[in-house]
Specification:
The chain is mainly alpha-helical. The protein is built from 30 helices and 11 strands. The strands form 5 sheets. The chain has a 3-stranded antiparallel sheet with strand order 2-10-9, with helices on one face. Strands 1-3 form a two-stranded antiparallel sheet.
Length: about 800
């Protein structure tokens, strides 16, 4: 440790005092343009200085500044040999001393290059500090309490039990507590353990991971074909979190599961992480460019998700702020050079939900036998127009053939092998019979341009982390184990920060979870972050243990309130930060309150109802019309948790989108939380919310006979508490007025569509081709209860439920 500390001091001296001088006053003549080196001297690397210039002598002699020509030159002792040559550029006495001390100390040169910046800027790359809590009691409170006292701030008192139960139940399961759970009077530690043991825990925390992994069930771009087996990766994440798989194993499996054990279906599925990003390749694409897109994407993704590094900048040039040179970027990319796509045979596991696969496959096969569209007299004469209509049928068959693969025991995965050509319109990419051959070479691309290759590089890892040995093997498994190495300072900091973030209003100790570099936010409590990272590694990297540690602190159980003027951003957590429910939590909570939420886990994605104006928007895939979005016919499928909803990259659920559900193109480190007018339209006027309000009203009617009792039950379901006397009176008044209104006006029936008229421009003649697409799934569609199915009393009670669903108390966690 003493040697590491000394090396750090000397590297800091170089980065802060020597490198800026070399860059500003020397490199213009000796290194910026390798073709125009004066005196053949290159000062931009240690090797260049050791080689020296045209004299053939080294410019530095590490450990002996007095005999080092570079040091003699900057002292200007010899009038014939002084650098910089112009007197106005001469170094100050302090700068000369910095050169002397640096050379005397062995002239250490950070392996990550000569990027500037202080040790404070590079905090994330330094070893995790072995710090002790500054006080007795709960260690989290000891660290936070010391920071509060330093600012003369007093922590808020503990929140009441009902508030805490709602807070922790949403945090750990994404659902509201039931009235029975509220009434149980359970001890706090028992509550935490019960929720961590719930299968709903994995569903909630998988959502956070899938945000950073960019999970989707389709490929994106203009070729947004379905990925029929991607659902198995989603279920793997849920299953792993529920089983509390140690995070180092969780890491290795996703980066290199196929290399670790290709006979284990679970590990083949886990490696699908590497393919989660959008990707396409068509006959009009350049294969080398689409391949490079994947390599750039996976390099940045692995660095951001597991290491908290934004390496995309280093693709074109040495990182301006962090010690991440371009060479390191391409060395890391070379690790992924052998990675090829494949849908690999992977038998279903007993823990996977395959119950409905056979029936779903039979239904899809039946749909393949149907034409699925009709003409309506809008087809122009001529063979070109006829071919256009044939294209409609061809595209429909392509999509249905992909649906058939949902039931196949395949893993959306990768393998290591030589270069291979893929196209987006392939139904699947099978594992080749032979994987012999060499992976493609990787070169440093000047300016990131594929047509400007520079030096060839070998596989490697970022050199910035201090005190970490190189990987034992130059492949993904070696990289994964390097990331999971207990000595890696980045990985444990990143994951404990992500967990902390979701327990404290969406803001981590580092507010930029994917960027722990200089341009990210500095940690509000650096010693606490390091203590948590060290504790996490020592305690088997158990996420559930980390949750338990955080949730049993006083800080987590504080009441909310206004931030103190001395800490306007509430960085010190004197009060608990209020947060709005995430889009999925809002949808799932409404289904839970209405009694419709189905507990079934896993399996291929289901299709909830979405706004019909959006569902029936024309979509094109691979230059042809894509079938319209159709909801699942059975309510039991439509009413499953949102995490099981099929996720198309080019067709978002408008209600979830307006409530800040992120896209899937980029890793989402932290969700936005906006308050905009369209949210009002979605929550007060949207069909989904109205349907849930009506279903809740029917549930309430089954439990009580009088309006007051029903309203009391509504509050307990939605808020976890009974209404106050004033709230009950106002709700009864509103109910009476709504009852009068609904008795006076019957609802107008509106059945869902069974077909849709479509059109496109015929590409050969420019004529408009029209046809009718049958919404074949709607033949078996079982609608939710609608206003015309119930009486005015139920509709009036639904108005109360609609108001509750739109209230701050329902939409926010305190």
């Amino acid at each position: 440790m003493i040697a590491i500390a000394l090396a750090l001091v000397l590297q800091d001296a170089f980065s802060e005092r020597v490198a800026p001088v070399l860059r500003a006053k020397c490199a213009g003549c000796h290194g910026e343009d390798p073709a125009k080196l004066k005196g053949e001297l290159d000062v931009t690397s240690r090797a260049g200085l050791l080689k020296g210039g045209e004299s053939g002598q080294p410019s530095i002699l590490p450990g002996d500044p007095e005999k080092s020509p570079l040091y003699v030159a900057v002292t200007r002792r010899d009038p014939e040999f002084k650098m910089p040559p112009k007197d106005r550029d001469k170094l100050s006495a302090e700068e000369v001393e910095a050169f002397r001390a640096w050379i005397a100390g062995g002239a250490p040169w950070p392996s990550s290059g000569w990027s500037g910046g202080s040790a404070a800027d590079r905090w994330a790359f330094l070893p995790v500090k072995d710090v002790a809590p500054p006080g007795d009691g709960h260690p989290v409170d000891a660290f936070l309490g010391a920071a509060l006292r330093a600012k003369d701030l007093a922590p808020a008192p503990a929140a009441d039990r009902a508030t805490l139960l709602r807070r922790v139940t949403f945090d750990l399961t994404g659902l509201p507590p039931t009235p029975e759970e509220v009434a149980a009077g359970e001890a706090w530690e028992a509550t935490v353990d019960r929720l961590l043991a719930s299968p709903r825990y994995g569903e909630q925390w998988a959502r956070h991971w899938l945000d950073v992994a960019r999970y989707a069930d389709s490929s994106g771009f203009s070729n947004d074909f379905e990925r029929p087996n991607a659902w198995r990766y989603r279920d793997y994440v849920i299953r792993s979190l529920n089983a509390d798989v140690p995070f180092d194993r969780f890491t290795v499996d996703q980066i290199a599961g196929d290399e670790l054990d290709p006979a284990d279906p679970e590990k083949l599925v886990a490696a699908g992480f590497l393919r989660m990003g959008p990707w396409e390749h068509t006959a009009m694409s350049v294969a080398a460019e689409t391949r490079q897109f994947f390599l750039d994407d996976v390099t940045h993704q692995v660095a951001a998700v597991f290491l908290g590094l934004t390496m995309r900048c280093a693709r074109c040039h040495d990182h301006k702020f962090d010690p991440l040179p371009t060479r390191d970027y391409y060395r890391l990319q070379a690790v992924f050079a052998p990675t090829q796509f494949a849908e690999r045979e992977a038998p279903f596991l007993p823990s996977e939900n395959t119950a409905g696969l056979a029936a779903a496959r039979a239904a899809t096969e039946a749909r393949l036998k149907e034409k699925g569209y009709r003409t309506d007299g809008g087809v122009p004469d001529g063979p070109a127009a006829k071919r256009s209509l044939e294209k409609v049928g061809t595209k429909r068959r392509e999509h249905l053939e992909r649906e058939l693969l949902r039931a196949e025991p395949l893993a959306f995965s990768v393998y290591a092998g030589p270069p291979r050509t893929y196209t987006s319109n392939q139904t699947k990419h099978p594992l080749p019979a032979s994987r012999e051959g060499e992976a493609a070479d990787v070169f440093v691309l000047k300016g990131g341009a594929l047509d400007a290759p520079g030096d060839r590089v070998e596989p490697g890892v970022p050199s910035a982390p201090v005190g970490l040995r190189a990987p034992e093997r130059p492949d993904r498994l070696g990289l994964a184990r390097w990331i999971a190495d207990p000595a890696n300072p980045l990985a444990p900091r990143v994951i404990v920060n992500r967990v902390w973030q979701h327990h404290f209003g969406g803001k981590g100790i580092v507010a930029t979870p994917n960027n722990l570099g200089k341009m990210g936010k500095r940690p509000t409590h650096p010693e606490l972050l390091d203590w948590l990272a060290g504790w996490f590694v020592k305690n088997g990297r158990s996420l559930k243990a980390l949750h338990r540690l955080i949730l049993t602190s006083d800080a987590y159980r504080r009441s909310d309130g206004a931030a103190d003027a001395g800490d306007p951003g509430n960085d010190l957590l004197a009060v608990y930060p209020i947060r709005r429910l995430a889009a999925e939590e809002i949808r799932d909570a409404m289904l839970a309150v209405s009694g419709e939420l189905r507990p079934e886990m896993g399996g291929p994605g289901v299709f909830p109802e979405i706004n019909w104006d959006v569902a029936l928007q024309p979509r094109h895939v691979m230059g042809g019309p894509a079938p319209m979005y159709q909801p699942s016919p059975r309510p039991d499928d439509r009413h499953r948790r949102t995490i099981y909803a099929f996720r198309l990259r080019t067709l978002a659920d408008p209600m979830l989108e307006v409530l800040n559900r992120p896209g899937t193109e980029m890793s989402c480190e932290r969700r936005d939380e906006t308050t905009v007018t369209p949210q009002v339209f979605a929550l007060f006027n949207g069909a989904f919310v109205h349907d849930r309000a009506l279903a809740t009203a029917r549930r309430l009617e089954n439990g009580s006979k009088d309006p007051a009792g029903r309203i009391d039950a509504a509050f307990r379901l939605a808020y976890g508490r009974p209404p106050s006397r004033e709230e009950l009176a106002r709700c009864l008044d509103h109910h009476a007025r709504m009852l009068e209104r609904h008795r006076a006006a019957a609802p107008v029936r509106a059945d869902p569509p069974r077909s849709v008229r479509r059109e496109m421009i015929e590409e050969f003649t420019g004529e408009t081709v029209r046809w009718i697409e049958d919404l074949d799934l709607m033949k078996a569609f079982v609608p939710d209860v609608k206003p015309w199915d119930v009486g005015p009393e139920t509709r009036a009670l639904a108005e109360i439920c609609l108001v509750l669903f739109n209230s701050n108390e329902f939409l926010y966690v305190r």
